[in-house]
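Pipeline run #58 for the internal structure catalog. This entry was flagged by the ingest filter as a single-chain record with no existing model, so it goes straight to prediction. Upstream metadata was stripped on purpose; only the residue string is passed forward. Reviewer on rotation: M.T. Logging verbosity set to normal.
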Amino acid sequence: MKYRSVVATRLGPPEVLEIVENDLREPAAGEVRIRVLAASVCRPDISARTGDALYSGTPLGQKVPFVPGYSVIGTVEAIGEGVTETAVVDRVGALTVVGGYTEYLYWDARRLIPVPTTLDLAEAMPLILNYIVAYQVLHRSAKVKAGEKALIVGASGGIGTALLQLGRLAGLTLYGLASKSKHPILTEMGAIPIDYRTQDFVDVIRQAEPEGLNYVFDGMSSRDYVERGIELLRRGGRMVSYGEPPSRSTLYWLLARVAWTHLLPNGRTYKLYGTSFYTFNQRPFLEDWATLVRLLEEGQIRPVIAAKFPLLEAAKANELLESGTVVGNIVLLSPELIP
């Protein structure tokens, strides 16, 4: 029996993504076979596919050809020897980093995320990556408190809109940086929008908040945004960058900036956030995913879904994401789940 995956056959534009067939096999010991029902499409997928300089030709540790796809939700179809963490027909998620654009995924049974079958799959999919990043940036990295004030750099994307929803729930006053066409969704979510193309966000914030901000959440991870964001912090303020650095040299600069910020006697702090911590300590992630599931079940959050594509049409989804017009999340779904 065969199944299909979307493979980056070389580094480059969305056209390098091709559909290939694979032989279906039984899962190995400690492994499960998941029938993928949904997958995310995110910026790291693009960086991996294009061979961003940060990864030096081996995208996210993978050699071409490889299957992109940072996270999935699916149904456990078969389990390998010794697996006790899950059972056949359970619905689970996986933070794959790569490998998600596929009809079937073989995955370590110890690294599964419980997903209730009652959730809408398109709305549940962003919880696995974008909402876990947003929640942990707010509550584990910055430790936000109600009544405080924050700026979100890159407020219209999947993580940005998650920060808007979760930040509002946390009682924050929010400013959001995005292009003018995307301001209506920011306003709808309770944020004060700033147009990065026509407005100097530093001037706007200084006029509105002369004492400075408690937090800056940065999805760009560029030197300019980091330096200007730190300027806006009041004493005791915290900045967290969660975006993917555009190059290896920028990553080194960011790490140096973290160290330097902590040495300065102004009470400000600067941190970097990454989901790589999941490899070392899964407990806080599982706790926070459970919280996000509850919030979705209760209707307190509702992910913004910009587009849904059939699972194997990942190339089209990547093209849309790269267009810069997307507000919220793009989700790949098994074809039978798309009306």
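catalog note: The longest strand covers residues 31-41.
catalog note: The mean pLDDT is 94.
status: ready for reviewer M.T.
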